[in-house]
From TrEMBL, chain A:
One of its GO terms (molecular function) is transmembrane transporter activity. It holds the Pfam family BPD_transp_1. PROSITE patterns: ABC_TM1. This is ABC transporter permease. Keywords: Cell inner membrane, Cell membrane, Membrane, Transmembrane, Transmembrane helix, Transport. The lineage of its organism: Bacteria, Pseudomonadati, Pseudomonadota, Alphaproteobacteria, Hyphomicrobiales. Residues 17-215 form the ABC transmembrane type-1 domain. It is a multi-pass membrane protein. The keyword Membrane applies.
From TrEMBL, chain B:
Keywords: Periplasm, Signal, Transport. This is Transporter substrate-binding domain-containing protein. NCBIfam families: 3A0103s03R (TIGR01096). Residues 1-23 form the signal peptide.
Length: 241, 281
């Protein structure tokens, strides 16, 4: 194991971290919004909203992300004249936006199921209690259902976020030079696959370690009822009286 | 006792016989990319086809070995050879100094030029030197003068190239500050992006560009500018081998030489590339 080489490889691959994070964050944010919308459609009780959402989740969970990225980038590239007519080509011309779109559509499908699970796990008696207090509609959702659902869904959603950070590595197949793209390039220049992939793996590990800590902190903040009450110091002065 | 001795001798004899058969029937595993027409590609039926598949079968016949040809992604093709996943590479790979640090090569079985592909209506279709050939080894001054002539037209353009190839090394060395380089896993992918208009031109082997222009959906693509060879572009296409596998190298050297001498290479390159690409030694 050549540690001097691994240090150089680390510095080379770190140049890809901003793009990796950029891809992950952009698609997680857009994906979460879209996921919320899909979850609400699924739970609306209206078939006209429920069915399209179900079909969407089925298609995007049921096909590999790699295939989706290929289809969006190379597939839609074949329809350039049409896309230009619709003014969409400036978006689809850029590999970055194609990658973000594929990642967003994918995470929205998984995320919507997690959110739906969270929403359905809100205990009915709590909703009834809120109604008894006179809350209804959006107020009920904002004050009671949503906070409890988020708390329930967060551990699973945290896994989804980690999966997304790792999924950005697939963007390298559409010329995005993020961490994995740079790793593949470095391997093809040096032919030292083991060292380079160890370094790449460590970078993802550190990124995801930080993300898991952030999610744990949010969980802690959202679950005051599970925290141990602060220990009460015994009053010592009394003994001296 | 006699019986045991006879049995022992018999076993010895049969194991010798098997050993002899194994030496004759040695299996050589050859890797190719399977996405680099017409050198090697995956045909309609999912079978590997192309110049190198035909040549490999011919060479294996000459070496009296059994051959197994497998497909392997280009960017991992040398590391996997090192990891002994197969014994040889025949994938349009040029001999370069950089690669020689890691692997060894047989004598070259083909050689060719490298150049630009662009769409007909693009300003880059008018790059200088069309139809002419320039060697960075033999006439470096003329070749470099032509590269200088290209620069004003190429300024600020996005160029597609297959990653980890002599072509990408050429762009890195000579045009890095002039163009934006976008690297693809396969040539098929940069072809698609050229026709989609995501890159302004591609830089690849003429043999591969020519095959692309012959596809109906690429009828508006042209080979632009002069053809370059030499320096980082390599010293011909050869069989890539592990450095410690001197025996196999000697076998391939002999077989390639024989295939060049009796005109097999000429016949096969004519058949697949429509030009004679026999290496001039």
């Amino acid at each position: 194991m050549d540690f001097a080489f691994m240090r150089d490889a680390f510095l080379t691959l770190m140049a890809g971290v901003p793009l990796t994070l950029n891809l992950a964050l952009t698609s997680i944010v857009f994906g979460a919004i879209f996921a919320m919308l899909l979850a609400v459609m699924r739970m609306s009780g209206l078939k006209i909203l429920d069915w399209p959402a179900q079909a969407y989740v089925f298609v995007f969970r049921g096909t590999p992300l790699l295939v989706q990225i290929f289809l969006i980038y190379y597939g839609l590239g074949q329809f350039r004249p049409t896309l230009q007519e619709w003014g969409l080509w400036t978006f689809f011309r850029e590999p970055f936006w194609c990658a973000v779109l594929a990642l967003t559509l994918n995470t929205a499908a998984y995320g919507s199921e997690i959110i739906r699970g969270g929403l359905q796990s809100v205990p009915h008696n709590q909703v009834e209690a809120a109604r008894a207090c006179g809350m209804s509609g959006f107020l009920l959702f904002r004050r009671v259902i949503f906070p409890i659902a988020v708390r329930q869904a967060l551990p699973a959603y945290g896994s989804e976020i980690i999966l997304m950070v790792k999924a950005t590595s697939l963007a390298s197949i559409i010329t995005m030079m993020e961490v994995t793209g740079l790793a593949a390039k470095l391997i093809s220049q040096t032919f030292r696959a083991v060292e380079v992939f160890i370094v790449a793996g460590l970078i993802y590990l550190v990124l995801n370690f930080i993300i898991t800590r952030i999610i744990m902190a949010i969980e802690w903040w959202l679950s005051p009822h599970l925290r141990r009450p602060p220990a009460v110091e015994p009053r010592l002065e009394a003994a001296h009286v | 006792m006699k019986l045991l001795k006879a049995l022992g001798l018999g076993l010895l004899a049969s194991s010798l016989a098997m050993g002899g058969a194994a030496a004759q029937e040695r299996t050589v595993k050859i890797a190719t990319e399977g996405a680099y027409a017409p050198w090697n590609f995956t045909g309609a039926g999912g079978k590997l086809e192309g110049f190198e598949i035909d040549l490999a079968n011919d060479l294996c016949g000459r070496m009296k070995v059994k051959c197994e040809i497998v497909a392997q992604d280009w960017d991992g093709i040398i590391p996997a050879l090192q990891a002994k996943k197969y014994d040889a590479i025949m994938a349009g790979m040029n001999i370069t100094d950089k690669r020689l640090e890691t692997i060894s090569f047989s004598r070259p079985y083909a050689s060719g030029l490298h150049g630009w592909g662009a769409m007909k209506d693009s300003p880059l279709a008018k790059l200088a030197g069309e139809g002419r050939r320039f060697s960075l080894d033999k006439d470096a001054d003329a070749a470099k003068a032509m590269i200088e002539q290209w620069k004003p037209l190429l300024k600020g353009k996005t160029i597609g190239v297959q990653t980890a190839t002599v072509n990408s090394q050429f762009l890195e060395k000579y045009l890095k500050d002039t163009i934006t380089i976008r690297e693809y896993k396969t040539t098929e992918q940069h072809d698609l992006d050229l026709s989609a208009g995501r890159v302004d031109a591609i830089f690849a082997a003429h043999s591969s560009l020519k095959a692309t222009t012959e596809k109906p959906e690429f009828k508006d693509m042209v080979i632009a500018g002069g053809g370059v060879s030499g320096d980082v572009l390599g010293r011909g296409v050869a069989v890539g081998l592990r450095k410690d596998d001197a025996e196999l190298k000697a076998m391939f050297d002999k077989a390639v030489q024989a295939a060049i001498a009796d005109g097999t290479v000429q016949k096969l390159t004519q058949q697949w590339f429509k030009v004679d690409m026999t290496p001039q030694s």
